[in-house]
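Recap from last week: sequence in, structure out.
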Amino acid sequence: MEDEGGSKQETDLRSVVAGGDRTDAAVADFQSALDPPFDAARNADLDTSARSRAVSHLGELGSRQPSAEVNEVSDRNKSVAAGIAAWNRICGAKLSVVLKVTPARKAVFLRRFDDDFGQDLAAWERYCQRVAASPFLTNAGGNNRGDWKANFDFVLEPRNLVRIVEGEWDPPRPASRPSLVSPSNPRGRVVLPVSGGF
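Predicted structure tokens:
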């Protein structure tokens, strides 16, 4: 549909500029519509003035300052990407790698990242290291029923997160041996009691 200002392409571009969000994808789609593979028969009757007007609109779009809302969405997406990259880097050798980020997974991660990690990527990385060090969560001993291992979704469930943070599934600590060193035995020698008779 044409309007008084020009072609359908220009109308679509104006709606993209007015929309604000999703501009990068829309601009890429629009650019691909402007620059299709060269076909002499198809491009012979291309209205070059309409094309130049559309390209000038693209230039105006690039000079616009993104709104605070767009920046917040971008920051949130960066947090998700950084969190998943940390998970894959730290836990990927022992647990399943995150390959797909669904809207539900993204929402759960962001909720935990905000509420439990204070949007601190270093805290999230320490959490991932604790998960990767757990013999139970990684099935290091092969003792879990059906070779079960934790995954990204499991460690984000609130009840499991608390158990992990509290150390319930940490590796067992070595039993502490009583020190043989004392003021009366400064070298730590083992002194066996001598019995009276053989």
